[in-house]
Amino acid sequence: MDPKASRDLTSLRPGISHYSRLPVRQLENVKGELLKLKNKEIAVCQTWHNVARTEEQRNSRLSDMAQREQERRAEETEEQRNRRLAVMGQRSQQKRAEETEEQ
């Protein structure tokens, strides 16, 4: 073996070709860069995981709200329903009147 090569990364490691012989400092730099990239990737994955979890929680809340509204309406009497619809109609008329006044 060339004695000059023994000062760098001398021994061939299993699975590494002779073309990948680099000085130890360069290998450490490469390892450091790979570690930084890995940490960034982990952070990005955690962020997306949090986004997905937040979306799931939001969807769950909306589903719960819709379910409660559906149950409330199922318990609503005919009189309550008519009153609710009448209020909606009055609000609609008021809104149309206000829009007409603005024009």
UniProtKB/TrEMBL annotation:
Residues 52-82 have a biased composition (Basic and acidic residues). Residues 50-103 are annotated as: Disordered. InterPro entries: STPR. Residues 53-103 form the STPR domain. This is STPR domain-containing protein.
